[in-house]
Amino acid sequence: MKRVGGFACFCMAGGMIIVFFLPNAFIQILVIVILLLVGYNLFCC
């Protein structure tokens, strides 16, 4: 189940990278980084 959650976090972060090209906001960048880290930890560990 952790792998599924990690994969979901990777997918959400990937979708938010597309949003990144819209008007910039610090919170968007912060959420992308957090989701990538959480997704990596859940999927790979």
Structure overview:
- α1 (about 1-20) runs antiparallel to α2 (about 25-45).
- It is built from two helices and no strands.
- It starts with a helix and ends with a helix.
- It is about 85% helix and about 0% strand.
- The chain has one domain.
- With about 45 residues, it is mainly alpha-helical.
List the helices and strands and how they pair.
Layout: H1 2-20, H2 26-44
Helix pairs in contact: 1-2
The main pleated sheet reads as: none
Q: What is the residue-mean pLDDT, rounded to a whole number?
A: 78
Roughly what fraction of the amino acids lie in strands?
under 5%
Give the N-terminus to C-terminus distance in angstroms: 12 Å
Helix/strand/pairing class, anyone?
Answer: mainly alpha
| Rg for CA atoms | 11 Å
Q: How do the helices and strands follow one another from N- to C-terminus?
A: HH
Shape: elongated
